[in-house]
Amino acid sequence: MATQQGGRRRLDSSVPQDYDVPTRVARIASPRIAYLVMSSFVVLWLVGVAGAGTAVVAVGTPEWIQRPSAALLMVVFTVALVHRGGGHMRLWIPPTALLAIVTVAVENNTLLASAAVLTGATAAVWAVLVTRPADGVVRAVAEFLIAIVVALSGTLAVAAWSPPVDYQRFNLIVVGISLALAIGLVWGLGAGLHGMGRQNFAILVGVALALVLVLAYSSFVRTHGSQTVVDLFTNSVIWTRETFGGVPRPVEVLLGFPALLVGVSVRSQRREGWWILVFAVVGTSVLTTSLVTPGAFPSYIGLSTLYSVVLGLLIGLGVRTQVMTQRSSRAARQIEPLSRVEPGRFAPLK
What we know:
By secondary structure, this protein is an all-alpha fold. The chain has helices at residues 31-53, 66-84, 89-106, 109-129, 137-161, 167-189, 197-224, 227-244, 250-266, 273-288, 298-323, 329-332; strands at residues 9-10, 335-336. A two-stranded parallel sheet has the order 1-2.
């Protein structure tokens, strides 16, 4: 009598899978009207990106279009994030639109900094939420690149605001707000903390503590470190910049971008992949703030981003291979669904 070979058992493919998170009723019932609204939204996003891009690339356009373009993108990012997260438009869109109008009209430094923070945070979180589950390497890389492109549009918007801020402080504020937003949204999408299991929860807590220690240590070294250590870091950065034209950002390479690739892959099988994507928000938020300083060289930031994306992608592919491989015999005996289902890219997740 032949025995069945070991391996993960799959569910019957003839039975369609259901989305495992309750969703809101569709805001627009007519598919045609919904398509027109979505098309208009994409056009507004492209118009805002083109206008904000003039703050980085000199194309001979008047400077006055930069901040209105940034204001348009801020509203677009907020609408997209609220819609994707299943929130209430009437609670979030009016104050955002009011902030955009008043900031463009008054150009107060505090308002400019506040608008830039909101723009960077919403773009960073939406860049992660707009992704779809990816059950293959090619799809995972495609989703990875989509998130990077969305985050880069946020980078242009923050640069177009051109707020007078301290980069380090601004970066930490945007990262903190982005993480808070991401955790709040992922709590429901990832089935709360109990949806992770003890092992994954311990891993995520360890990564979070390591992130806090790295950020705190780097900030402490810059302000209170010995001159020898500061000179060592400075000389290393200068040599890398002179040799390669850019310097990869460690937070993106070692944490944010690998988490982005692994998270969309794990999401194709388990909801706990959303908790991995919380750390991807760290990478996208650092990316959205990279051009906030008016004196930043776009070519240097561009090459640094390119190096960070490539290195983070390679590390993410290596980690993905390990995470997606089931090694234990107990895991091999579990029933595995063919693919986890989620709503469309521009549909609410809850």
